[in-house]
Amino acid sequence: HIDQTEYLCNGELKSWNKEKISIFSPIFVCKDKDSMPEQMVLGSCPSLDEEETLKILDAAVKAYNDGNGIWPLMRVEDRIKCVEKFIYLMGENKDEIVNLLMWEIAKSHKDSEKEFDRTIKYMIDTIDALKTLDRNSSRFLIEDSIIAQIRRSPLGIVLCMGPFNYPLNETFTTLIPALIMGNVVIFKPPKHGILLYRPLLKAFKEAFPPGVINTLYGRGRVVASALMSTGKISCLAFIGTSKAADSLQKSHPMPHRLRMILGLEAKNPAIVLPDASISLTVKECLLGALSFNGQRCTALKILFIHSKIVDIFLEELSNEIGKLKIGAPFDDDVFITPMPDESRIKYFIELIEDAKLLGAKIVNKFGGSYNKTFFYPTILYPVSNKSRIYNEEQFGPIIPVVPFSNIEEPLKYITESNYGQQASIFGTDPDVIAKIIDILVNQVCRVNLNSQCQRGPDIFPFTGRKDSAVGTLSVSDALRSFSIRTLVAAKSNDLNKD
Ligand code: G3H
């Protein structure tokens, strides 16, 4: 049981003994051999109030402005040294963080370790990218007798909020570029994935000057809204649902002027052409739809399979699903683990019942079955375009399958979708594929050939169109997103005089 009382404000680990939030694990445990399983309470963390939130904001504003802004004024090389020190300190806490990832969000040991290593790599890549940023373009402009030096300056105070599915990696992909560009950061970890920050608070405190990074613990509608409504947040970096992003934006006094970097929802489709390799497609679709129980914004969330191959595809996909190991995140070779809470299971059942009423069937053995927070992977076929799961982002282990005979059908789906993150195409005819790619690159931001959708490698640009994203989060794009180009201009005559 972790009773987290501390939070980081102005370089101090302050203690909070008022209201707390209980943190539950997705994992159910039995207290003894005769008792019923209960969802495990992992611990608690501070539920800060508005007054404390505004103190955190004051600390951040002070760190940005006072003493002419110690952090934004610091040489880039010195800011890099702070991040390097942090990387070292974070590395020392790997085992504890990986363990907490497993208990807090039920991510398998292998994937939790991968998330940790990927986050460290992201920070190292960011430092490398910063060293070469803008080196290729001229840093001076001369026109009409004016000479201007172009600088890359920070935005101000950035509020970073990451999602539960990648509480470490996705938070860091905004927090680190924001910090290293000279911004001051307030960050709020997600409710599932908050305790793993405990060992990191000390590392932040040791690596960065006071007030440069501050943690905000509490209920989003209290603490994040209180911050936004001051109008002092220069940039909102948020990864999560569109609904939460909209409500945060609306709390700002001038919502349309707020700078935002957003990673939101997606409904990435796969188009499987009649000449696709069945074994490769089944393997990639299974990984794409079911890795981390389908809880990835980049997951494949609907499959369009050509009618000529749909039967064999469904048979092989069902067989492969039957081989997946279900269990606790620390079990060897586990693939399907518990969902965060039982409300998710209720939602999946609603989606399945709705699809069944509109003609779909559960294709695979044990599909639709569940126990507490476990939900068995479920293939639904044929899914009607009237059913909820046709458009809603399920964010779970349900695979809706739609047969097609004319390529215009999946293309129409993608064009009309509210989302526009990624798509996958499976097939072997280069001419056919080339034509589809030319259409898809105008609708989504990454087209994957004979492979699942995915974000990585993290140095690749990561974004989306429509309701899927605002701004781009690769390593170098993020450095640009969290900075602004400023000019120092002089009349060239004045320069000549000197
Ligand atoms: O949830 C969205 C993540 O950025 C997905 O990353 O495709 O590497 O799992 P991934």
Please describe what this structure looks like:
By secondary structure, the protein is an alpha/beta fold. The protein is built from 17 helices and 25 strands. The strands form 7 sheets. The chain has a 7-stranded mixed sheet with strand order 15-18-19-14-13-21-22, sandwiched between helices. α15 links the parallel β21 (422-426) and β22. The longest helix is centred in the N-terminal third of the chain and has 24 residues, at 109-132. The N and C termini lie far apart (68 Å). The mean pLDDT is 95. Residues 165-166, 170, 296-298, 454-456 line the site of glyceraldehyde-3-phosphate (G3H). Glyceraldehyde-3-phosphate binds at residues 165-166, 170, 296-298, 454-456.
Give the structure's gist in a few sentences.
The chain has 498 residues and is an alpha/beta fold.
Oligomer: single chain
Class from helix and strand fractions: alpha/beta
Give the termini distance in whole angstroms. Answer: 68 Å
Largest sheet: 7 strands, mixed
Fraction in beta strands:
15-25%
Number of helices: 17
Average pLDDT score: 95
Bound molecules: glyceraldehyde-3-phosphate
The poorly predicted ranges are none
**Order of strands in the sheet with the most strands?**
15-18-19-14-13-21-22
Query: Got a strand count?
Result: 25
Gyration radius, in Å = 24 Å
| Helix share bin | 25-40%
| Envelope shape | globular
Secondary-structure blueprint of this entry?
Layout: E1 2-3, E2 6-9, E3 12-15, E4 20-29, E5 38-46, H1 50-65, H2 70-73, H3 76-91, H4 94-105, H5 109-132, E6 140-143, E7 146-154, E8 157-161, H6 169-180, E9 184-188, H7 198-207, E10 213-215, H8 220-229, E11 235-239, H9 242-251, E12 259-263, E13 268-272, H10 278-290, E14 300-306, H11 310-322, H12 342-357, E15 361-362, E16 370-371, E17 374-375, E18 378-381, H13 388-391, E19 398-404, H14 408-416, E20 419-420, E21 422-426, H15 430-440, E22 446-449, E23 465-466, E24 469-470, H16 475-481, E25 483-491, H17 492-497
Parallel strand pairs: 1-5, 8-9, 8-11, 9-10, 11-12, 13-14, 13-21, 14-19, 18-19, 21-22
Antiparallel strand pairs: 2-3, 4-5, 6-7, 7-25, 12-24, 15-18, 16-17, 20-23
Helix pairs in contact: 1-8, 3-5, 3-7, 4-5, 5-6, 6-16, 8-9, 10-11
This protein binds glyceraldehyde-3-phosphate (G3H).
